[in-house]
Each structure stands twice: as C-alpha cells, then as structure tokens.
Design goal:
This protein has helices spanning about 1-10, 20-65, 75-125. The chain is rod-shaped, with a radius of gyration of 26 Å. Helix content is about 85%, strand content about 0%. The chain contains 3 helices and no strands. It has one domain (about 1-125). The longest helix is centred in the C-terminal third of the chain and has 50 residues, at about 75-125. It has about 130 residues and is mostly helical.
Length: about 130
C-alpha cells in the first residue's frame, strides 16, 4: 500500500521498476471499474426503456385481442390481427434479445472486474 501511495504521489522508490506491473494492474482495474459503472447505467437505462415499450405493446395487444373477440369479426379483421400480432411478437423478441446481449456484456465486465480486483489485492498484500 505504501508503494502505491508513493507512486500516486510521484515519489521515487528505489524499487519502482519492480512495481510497474502493479501500477499497470491498478490503472487497468480503475479503468475496468469505470467501464463497469457505465455499463451498469446503460443496462439499467435499457431495461427501463424495454419495460416501458413492453407495457405499450401489452396495451396494444389487449386492444388487438378485444377487436377480434366479438361476433361480427370479418376474415380481414383476423388477417390484420394475425399480421399485427406477429409484428408485436417480433418487436418483443428483438427487445428481449437486445436486453440479454447487454446483460451478457455487463456480466462479462463484472467478472473481469472481480478477477482484476483479486489480482490487485494479491499484489498489494491484502
């Protein structure tokens, strides 16, 4: 820890060349943590927008279903219903896949941060 503080303060230590990999690991760890925070914010924002769009699509599905559940439904109404339902389901699938990809990316970065944290802690003797 004293070596880290000395390097952060710009002080020279006689063994400074021995700690360059430790400094690189610490910089990489800080960069990874910053990226992780950004990924987390992006994931939360995407999740919220997916929830909002899903709510809108669910409302539209309800109206769509109501429109074909009466006795006076024509064949063209059923065709329009099927077509629109297909589009809604495609959109939901896209949204879910997009969210799953973002989640996967976040989880990978989280794992990377944990590995770097262990490595930096081990180098610093914690």
């Amino acid at each position: 820890m004293d070596i880290l503080h000395a390097s952060l303060k710009g002080q020279n230590t006689s063994d400074s060349h021995l700690y360059s990999s430790e400094d690189e690991d610490d910089v990489e760890f800080r960069r990874t943590v910053q990226n992780l925070f950004e990924e987390e914010e992006n994931l939360l924002n995407l999740h919220m927008s997916v929830i909002q769009e899903n709510a809108e699509l669910l409302t539209e599905e309800g109206k769509l279903l109501q429109g074909v559940q009466n006795d006076h439904v024509e064949d063209y109404d059923i065709d329009a219903y099927a077509s629109r339902l297909g589009s809604i389901l495609d959109r939901k699938t896209y949204l879910i896949n997009q969210l799953k990809e973002k989640l996967g990316s976040f989880r990978m970065q989280l794992q990377q941060e944990e590995e770097l944290s262990r490595k930096v802690s081990a180098l610093q003797g914690y």
